[in-house]
Structure formats: C-alpha cells, structure tokens
Specification:
With 455 residues, the protein is of the alpha/beta class.
C-alpha cells in the first residue's frame, strides 16, 4: 500500500520592487507571555489588548488553563480571571510548552513555589534545550527540578518535573544576562520567605520589572538596571488587577525594517511598536550601518515606551561590529541583522553572542548555513560569526532550512526578496511568533505568496 503524500505550507519569495507603506505588527511576544501569566496572578479579572498571536503565546495560554485559570482569547484580546498564586491548581497532565523556552522557564519559577508536582514538556526542539541555568538557582531556593540528563550528566533537559514547596530567598548572581532566567527567579522570589536579590552581568530586558511594578508587586530595581530585589514580607500574594495593553513586537518588526533597509527604494513605517531601550539595539545597529532610521515615541503603556519606526533605503549599507551590550540588546534580532550584513559592503563581525547556540536552533550554525547556501561568505567562532557582504550582488535563491526556528525562516524570506531566483520558506515555523508575516510583507509590496509542497 502506497503511503499518502504529505504536504506542508510554504512561502514562495521572489525579487521584489520597493517596499512601501505603514503597518503594525502583532503584540510583543515577550510582553504577551508576561501579561497572561501575571494576569493569572492578579486578584481579579484582567483584560488584555494587543496580545501576540503566535504559537508561543498560545502555549502559555494552554499551560495556565491546565493550572485551573480561566483564559478567554478572541483575536488579539484576552480575558484572564486572576486567581493569585494560591488559586493555581495541580494539573491533571503535563504542561505542553510547545516550542516556547519562555513558557518553560517562567513556569519553572512559577511552579517552584506551589505545593504540588508538575511536569513541563515541549516539542523536539525545546526538548533539546538545556534548562540548567534555571534549575540551579531554583534548587538553591528549595525547589526540586528533575529532567533528562544532558551531555554533562545533569538532569536539566525537558521534560522537567517540578516539585514545588516552601522556598527561601537567596542572593544570586546570574552567569549571563537573561530576562527569562531573571523572570523565573522573580516569580519564585515572590513566593519565598525572605528577600531575593538577583544581579546580572549586564542589563537584560526589563519587561517583567516594569509590568510587576505596574501591577503593585513588591519589587525594586537599582539605578543600573542590573540588580533586582523582591521582598514579599507583608504582601498578600496577589497582583492588583488592571487592564493591560501590549505594544507591537519590535523583534517581529525588525524583519520588516531590515527589508526596508536592503530593498532599493523602500520606505516602511511600523506604528505602535514597543521602544523599550533594552530592545532597541537593532535600531542602533542599522544606524551604524548607515541606514536611515527615524524613531518617534508617541506614548507609554505599563511603563513601556511605544511609538513608530520608519526606515528608508538610501543606498548600500556598510559593515559593522556587533558585540557587548549592543549584542545583548539585539540578541533576538541578530538573524535579521545578519541579512543586512549579508548585502552590506565589507566584513561584519558578531561577537559575544554565544547565547545564540541554545536558542530554538543553534542560530550561529543556522545563520552560517543559510548564508553560505545563498553564496555569502561567513565564518563561525565559538561565540560568534562573521559575514562578508556581497554589496550589490544578489544572493542565490533556493530552499531555506530553518530547523524549526521562526527567526531563521523569516531571515531567509527577507534575503529572498533580493534574489533573482525563487526562495522557498517553510511557513509553519514562522507562526510561532509572527503568523501574519507574509500578509504584511505582501501588503508592503513584497513578492511573497503562500503555497504547499509535497514532503
């Protein structure tokens, strides 16, 4: 008997004329995770507007429902009936985090202080991602986390079994600047006896601190932004219920902005997008590459600055160096920036970005593979890579192999806008964070169309 033919959704991308127009992007994925989770910890109902529409945020919704929280989602709006920490219930089965490392790490911190046992699972990609950095401090606080052994023989690979209980505060220095790790420890610290103090080697995203302050949590941040203190003494264990608005996702917008910077004649504006300074490294890099970038802040929501960003093509980009704090502030946008470097004049270097090795894919290896496929010279190092741009020479087309990584898939699509040959991109991976990516790109004038192909 012949096996049935299987198909997958793809994007067919061709060389595009100038991209032009004003658009918006889905709600910030990082902030959406926190809006949903913190909404569940409020002492009453919370209405959320502008919620991210991707699969990662859906994983957080599913995990909260499994813990007994009522979450109703309608498009980009959600209604969460907050129950506080004490209202969470032991799940009947494993909590499926899908492809979302943020969901898994934040829920480790959340469940570390709950008096029951939970299991956190994920898809094959997430199951390869080590969770030792979050397991170690939570174990020091008194929680039990058990998983599969990794190459070092430590039980830190998903599925993770979290046995929560009485936690105590700790002073902890993070080995790397990480918003996910920091947020997990903040959630655990809110459930612990005594103060928890967290220090980072550099400032990471501070969405957790901004939103928790907005909702009345007992959290303090020093002037450097690198030290956080949680003191739950006298706190009732519930956040103050309030309407929440999620700004547009700058990490998603980055692919449209880079496209505008590299496709001749383009002029693209992304409106109502988040402008948190811990996230705007991508704009600083584009400016350093001589791109024409205009930023106008139009307001603030929950302590988060929002506004519009306009990028106009003004000629070939020049090579640059991305490292240190600038790399930290643009870590998720590096696949998009690698595309900009691929068509720039000269050799660009990315250093101190070893964290990319443990993202949805080994992004350093994935970026190098995809750039080489299109004829662009690139070299890997342990904690970075270099890209020698082709200047005005178009890249080659072909099939993008994103290794289930949404940002690699979108980077391949943007590079395809410059190719004389067709570029084929698996589209299901993009839905993880930016399900409307192809429609928006098409509306701006990009030569993109949906199709299916046999696999």
């Amino acid at each position: 008997m012949t096996a049935p033919i299987q198909y997958r959704e793809i994007l067919r991308v061709g060389r595009s004329p100038a991209l032009r127009g004003v658009c918006s992007v889905p709600g910030d994925k990082s902030i959406s995770h926190r809006a949903l989770l913190f909404g569940a910890l409020c002492g009453g109902p919370v209405d959320i507007r502008g919620l991210g529409l991707g699969g990662d945020n859906a994983s957080t919704v599913g995990a909260l429902r499994a813990l007994g929280v009522s979450v109703q989602v309608s498009g980009s709006a959600a209604h969460v009936d907050g129950v506080g920490f004490a209202g969470l219930r032991e799940p009947a089965g494993a909590l499926d985090c899908g492809n979302s490392g943020t969901t898994m790490r934040l829920f480790c911190g959340l469940l570390a202080g709950r008096p029951f046992t939970s299991t956190l699972t994920g898809d094959p990609s997430l199951s390869r991602r080590p969770m030792g950095r979050v397991a170690k401090p939570l174990r020091l606080m008194g929680a039990t986390l058990e998983g599969r052994s990794d190459a070092q023989g430590e039980g830190v690979l998903p599925p993770l079994v979290v046995k929560g209980g009485n936690l105590h505060g700790i002073d902890y220095q993070l080995p790397v600047a990480s918003a996910q790790l920091k947020s997990a420890l903040v959630l655990a610290g809110l459930q612990a006896s005594g103060k928890t103090r967290i220090e980072e080697p550099g400032p990471s995203r501070d969405h957790t601190e901004r939103m928790l302050r907005f909702l009345g949590a007992p959290i303090r941040v020093d002037g450097s932004g690198r030290r956080v203190e949680i003191d739950p003494l006298g706190w009732n264990g519930q956040l103050a219920a309030a309407p929440v608005e999620v700004p547009g996702d700058l990490s998603s917008a980055a692919f449209l902005l880079v496209a505008a910077a590299v496709v001749p004649g383009s002029d693209v504006t992304v409106a109502q997008v988040g402008l948190n300074p811990t996230r705007t490294g991508v704009l600083d890099v584009l400016r350093a590459m001589s791109a024409n970038v205009e930023v106008v802040q139009t307001g603030e929501v929950m302590g988060e600055p929002v506004g519009r960003v306009r990028v106009r093509w003004t000629g070939p980009l020049r090579a640059t160096h991305i490292g240190g704090e600038l790399a930290l502030r643009s870590i998720d946008e590096i696949p998009a920036l690698a595309v900009a470097c691929a068509v720039a004049e000269g050799r660009s270097e990315f250093t101190e970005v070893g964290e990319l090795r443990v993202k949805e894919s080994d992004r350093i290896a994935s970026i190098a593979r995809e750039l080489r496929r299109t004829g662009i010279a690139t070299e890997q190092t342990t904690d970075g890579f270099s890209v020698t741009g082709r200047g005005g020479l178009p890249p080659k087309g072909g099939h993008v192999l994103p290794d289930r990584d949404h940002r690699i898939a979108m980077a391949g699509a943007v590079l395809g806008l410059l190719s004389d040959d067709e570029t084929v991109v698996p589209s299901e991976d993009i839905a993880t964070s930016f399900p409307t990516f192809s429609e928006i790109l098409q509306a701006l004038g990009g030569q993109v169309r949906r199709d299916v192909e046999a696999i």
